[in-house]
Write a structure and sequence with these properties.
The complex is a heterotrimer of chains A (about 350), B (about 220) and C (about 450). Chain A is of the alpha/beta class and about 350 residues long. Chain A has 15 helices and 9 strands. Chain A has a 5-stranded parallel β-sheet with strand order 2-1-3-7-9, with helices on both faces. Chain A has a two-stranded antiparallel sheet with strand order 4-8. Chain B is about 75% helix and about 0% strand. In chain B, α1 (about 5-30) runs parallel beside α8 (about 170-185) and α5 (about 110-135) packs antiparallel against α7 (about 145-165). Chain C is an alpha/beta fold and about 450 residues long. Helix content of chain C is about 55%, strand content about 5%. In chain C, β7 (about 410-415), α22 and β8 form a beta-alpha-beta unit. In chain C, α1 crosses α22. The longest helix of chain C has 23 residues, at about 5-25. Chains in contact: A-B, A-C, B-C. At the B-C interface, α1, α3, α6 and α9 of B face α3, α4, α10 and α18 of C.
Chain lengths: ~350, ~220, ~450
């Protein structure tokens, strides 16, 4: 798509009919839980949208977020939309390499100063910046440099949003999230390990349609449209939780009957995401439906929450040895106190005899 | 660290340590004061059996006394029973105990627990009102009594709210519930909540004391 | 009332008069207040052990003990709740003996001299140690034992009621109570001999040592006579020692453990000296408790003889065929007063009932009987105290109502204190119901 072409013109030139375009807009609108009357607004906004420049920075990541997004679509309208964004820098998807790639980044930053969007996946090593470099530039420097004149940052995936796996105990690289480092630009967190593809595109669509300020976020910077409710409240297995029917192992009768997975470590009650409603693979399923408890991947520190298979209520209270040690120490203090009291009593008894 | 991470982690850890340390300190410290041997000739040599029987029968006062203490007796029973069921037979709680003890036990449906928790809360408040209004209890009650009521009431109320997802985000409600439990655990050894552990030895020794004399305690 | 009762009443009233005189002559030692408090605390410390600690740590302040206490019941005065009566001990324990004392001490008030003076009323005037509270406590606390320790603390501080202070000193130093001693026993023995009732004194080789009380000798000599008849009829090899015949223990009553030990030792030493096999107690309340259940611990060794109440003696002799009773009670209904020290605290619950039924009486149980029977209100020295007379009388009114409700012809008791209290109460309230002694009734029914 030419840089000065609007999205509507681009789609038209690719043979997407007005009707097809409106169908997509209607799906997008309902995805964002907008009323039917908003359809024309969505359609007009998208049609008029100019291709914003997007610079995608990949740091300490596994590329799973990109994989999830790209795997998620067949040749659909969404992919056209995605192509319609001027993706000026992306390690996996771009054709250029080496210095050419970095030049493209710098050019995009210069041409779109103040207007380009930065998408980040992967965490940033702060205590040991040298652990992750691209073209000789540390992730930390690249992030700061690229973010300086951007319009907004979207931190895609739990690594960028909260630090993710690299951030897990003992965090050998000193990995941090984007919002730990960039504090003077708006950062929208779209966590998940990986996030649901339509969640990513849905957030971007909302930004394109209604502008950055329209995205309501929670206290962790996550769009409430997708991260406003916890899995537990939308889980189709909730009645089994209420009735107290739990799978005890992964292959017992309860598991086969599709009972609640709380005892097998499901973190649904404390996890906010859209998995239970939007599901994965274009609505095919999601982990709980497939028989595995939610691992809480859109929450900070989910790797250090006690274990994927330990139930929430088991807590993280340390070791049994330490508990026994505390009890033994108490018994010792009690015994000492009793001995002291008894010797005073003996003295008092002796006084009486005298 | 989020509030929930603290409550599930270091908060719980310290609370458990203080609880165990304090309980053992108090129980051992009291019992290790030891008893003086009773040299009188006992009527019955079955006083161990009498002691054990008193542990059970003291929950049911003699018929002659019943009409004077009926309210306290029945409400007290309902309170304790409802509390035990709510604490011991709610599946997430059992998972916690299992993580500490190494074994668990069967659970009851959550809706049953909601009912018992409501009963526990209501009976506790009823008994609190009696404590604050009845002349004898007003005279003898002190700060320990009232704080202990609070220490147990807060986990009950916060647990019901957390379960029903009412009042705040779930993880905040859960954190508050855990923190109120941790307060109770820390308060426990220094308060009258210790009657949990003292009741059995106390009833037992009264059972044997009267059993020596041939009287049903 | 029959003439026997009225003569008893006369002597009862005479006793009251001499007690009033006792009060007037008491000279109190001028111990400094802090010394009194110090002694009280030492007395508390001596009696606190693991068992008491468990009791003190278990109270949940439910107040049910008040619902069992006759003094609370009849006044609705919350200060008489048993848990309040031992409050001083709980405070002392938490400050000085509890394993948690470093934590509790800053929050617990110390014992003061004013506390001791105030609690004197609660533990002497408003408590007889009847242990009814022990029966109701859902935590199984020996409430009455804790109140007992407070009594001992106040006694150690020399703050017991003046009458008791005088009487326990008299008993310890002079082996007499209100002037009644072994000499009185000799006089009674002589009188009974004239009536053909043998009361062997200082007999060598006797196996059974019988005891009496100053109250019995003074107010109920017919009971002493009855005991003698029963022992003789059973063919017992028995005697009484005037130097060691007193089973009442004013040291115990006053909370003076040293004086208590002196009186107990008199009996034990005499029994040991004469190789006595069985000591039999007359109709007495605390006298039975002190020797039977506290005696061994008081002298620090197991007693080398068995201790029986006259009731237990009668049952045993009946059972072994040495005593037979006539059915003189047929056609008369009786209600039995369970003396707290004999029944609830002593374990003698069924025997008196068996004896009464063996004499043909129709037994009508009061609403509260046996283990849950109400105290007569005047035991454990309570009857001696002028400061407690109003409270006593309220409890008497309660008992009177219970007896009346049975519709029984007579009230039977097996304890001289109970008997004394009922007679005084009956006289004050104009109650005509005959109040009879179990052993005297048995003596009347001895078959040939």
């Amino acid at each position: 798509m030419r840089k000065d072409q609007t999205l509507g013109e681009y789609l038209q030139s690719h043979g997407v009919s007005r009707r097809g375009f409106l169908k997509y807009c209607s799906a997008t609108a309902s995805l964002m839980a907008l009323p039917p009357s908003a359809l024309s607004q969505v359609a007009e906004a998208l049609a008029q949208a100019r291709r914003p420049s997007v610079i995608w920075l990949s740091f300490q990541e596994c590329t799973g977020c990109t994989e999830s997004l790209t795997r998620s679509h067949a040749p659909t309208v969404e992919s056209l939309i995605f192509d319609a964004i001027s993706l000026d820098y992306h390690h996996t998807l771009q054709a250029a390499a080496g210095h050419g790639a970095e030049d493209a980044r710098m050019a995009a930053m210069e041409e779109n100063k103040g207007k380009y969007i930065v998408v980040v996946d992967g965490s940033i090593p702060v205590e040991h910046p040298e652990y992750s470099t691209i073209a000789g530039i540390t992730n930390l420097d690249m992030l700061k440099e690229t973010a300086e004149h951007c319009a907004a940052i979207v931190a895609v995936g739990s690594c960028a949003a909260f630090g993710g796996l690299p951030n897990a105990n003992p965090n050998p690289t000193g990995a941090r999230s984007v919002s730990d480092i960039i504090t003077d630009k708006p950062v929208i967190n779209v966590p998940g390990c990986p996030p649901i593809p339509v969640v990513i595109t849905g957030v971007l669509a909302q930004v394109l349609t209604f502008g950055l300020g329209s995205v309501e976020v929670d206290h962790l910077g996550r769009p409430t449209a997708f991260f406003g409710q916890n899995i537990h409240d939308r889980c189709y297995r909730r009645p089994f939780y209420e009735r107290g029917q739990f799978a005890e192992t992964f292959d017992d009768e309860g598991a086969k009957a599709g009972w609640c997975l709380y005892k097998l470590g499901c973190k649904g009650p404390t996890t906010y995401n859209a998995c239970a409603t939007l599901k994965w693979n274009e609505g095919a399923s999601f982990p709980i439906q497939s028989g595995h408890g939610c691992i809480g991947c859109s929450e900070p520190n989910f790797w250090d929450a006690g274990g994927f298979y330990k139930p929430i209520s088991a807590g993280m209270w340390g070791s049994r040895e330490a508990l026994l040690g505390a009890a033994a120490a108490g018994a010792a203090v009690g015994a000492a106190s009793a001995l002291a009291a008894r010797s005073r009593k003996k003295k008092a008894l002796a006084e009486e005899e005298a | 660290m989020t509030l929930l991470e603290f409550a599930r982690g270091p908060g719980l850890q310290w609370a458990l340590w203080i609880f165990l340390f304090g309980v053992l300190w108090r129980v051992v410290g009291a019992m290790y004061l030891l008893g003086t041997k009773d040299l009188s000739k006992f009527r019955s040599k079955h006083y161990v059996r009498d002691g054990l029987r008193a542990v059970l029968t003291r929950s049911a006062p003699a018929e002659a006394f019943e009409k004077k203490i009926r309210f306290q007796h029945l409400t007290g029973y309902a309170w304790h029973l409802a509390l035990f069921i709510s604490v011991l037979f709610f599946a997430p709680h059992i998972l916690f105990f299992e993580s500490v003890l190494g074994f668990g036990w069967p659970h009851l449906p959550n809706t049953v627990i909601l009912v018992t928790a409501a009963i526990a809360t209501a009976t506790l408040i009823a008994l609190l009102i009696r404590r604050a209004t009845h002349p004898v209890q007003r005279l003898i009650s002190n700060a320990d009594d009232y704080i202990s009521v609070l220490a147990v009431l807060m986990p009950l109320v916060s647990g019901i709210l957390a379960f029903a997802h009412v009042g705040a985000r779930y993880e905040t409600l859960l954190a508050i519930h855990l923190l109120t439990v941790e307060f109770m655990l820390v308060w426990y050894p220094f308060s009258k909540l210790m009657h949990t552990f003292m009741t059995i030895p106390s009833r037992y020794q009264t059972g044997t004391f009267f059993g020596h004399r041939g009287v049903k305690a | 009332m029959n003439t026997q009762a009225s003569s008893v009443l006369e002597s009862v009233q005479a006793l009251e008069k001499s007690l009033e005189q006792v009060e007037a002559t008491v000279e109190r030692e001028g111990l400094p207040d802090d010394e009194r408090v110090r002694r009280a605390k030492k007395a508390f410390l001596r009696k606190l052990d693991g068992r008491k600690a468990v009791d003190l740590d278990t109270c949940i302040h439910c107040g049910m003990c008040a619902e069992a206490c006759p003094f609370y019941e009849t006044t609705q005065d919350e200060r008489y709740a048993p848990v309040n009566k031992y409050h001083l001990l709980r405070r002392f324990y938490r400050r000085e003996v509890s394993p948690m004392r470093p934590v509790f001490r800053p929050f617990t008030r110390d014992i003061t001299i004013d506390d001791l003076r105030e609690w004197r009323h609660y533990v002497f005037d408003a408590c007889t140690g009847c242990a009814r509270c022990d029966m109701i406590c859902p935590m199984g606390i020996n409430v009455s034992s804790l109140i007992r320790i407070v009594r001992e603390g106040i006694g150690a501080a020399d703050l017991m009621p003046p009458r008791l202070q005088r009487l326990k000193t008299e008993q310890a130093e002079k082996n007499s109570i209100v002037g009644v001693d072994g000499q009185k026993l000799r006089e009674i023995a002589d009188q009974l001999a004239d009536q053909g009732i043998d009361v062997p004194l200082d007999k060598d080789g006797a196996e059974i040592m019988m005891l009496t009380t100053s109250m019995e000798m003074r107010s109920f000599p017919s009971a002493l006579a009855a005991n003698a008849k029963i022992l003789n009829k059973a063919g017992a090899n028995w005697t009484m020692f005037p130097e060691a015949c007193e089973s009442a223990n004013l040291g115990y009553v006053a909370g003076d453990t040293a004086a208590m030990r002196v009186a107990v030792k008199r009996i034990v030493d005499k029994a040991k000296q004469h190789s006595i096999k069985t000591v039999v107690l007359p109709e007495t309340g605390h006298g039975y408790q002190v020797l039977r259940w506290l005696g061994a611990n008081t002298v620090g060794e197991q007693l080398p003889f068995e201790v029986l109440s006259i009731i237990e003696f009668i049952i045993r002799e009946q059972g072994e065929g040495r005593l037979a009773l006539k059915q003189g009670g047929a056609g008369t209904s009786v209600a039995y007063q369970d003396p707290c020290r004999l029944s609830r605290k002593g374990g003698i619950l069924q025997e008196p009932r068996d004896i009464l039924e063996s004499m043909g009486f129709e037994l009508r149980e009061t609403e509260y009987h046996g283990r849950e029977d109400y105290c007569c209100g005047g035991g454990c020295g309570e009857y001696v105290l002028s400061t407690g007379s109003e409270l006593r009388h309220k409890v008497f009114a309660l008992k009177k109502g219970l007896f009346e409700d049975t519709g029984a012809d007579k009230v039977v008791t097996a304890c001289a204190s109970c008997r004394y209290n009922f007679l005084i109460g009956a006289e004050k309230s104009g109650w005509e119901k005959p109040i009879i002694s179990l052993s005297e009734t048995v003596a009347e029914q001895l078959a040939d």
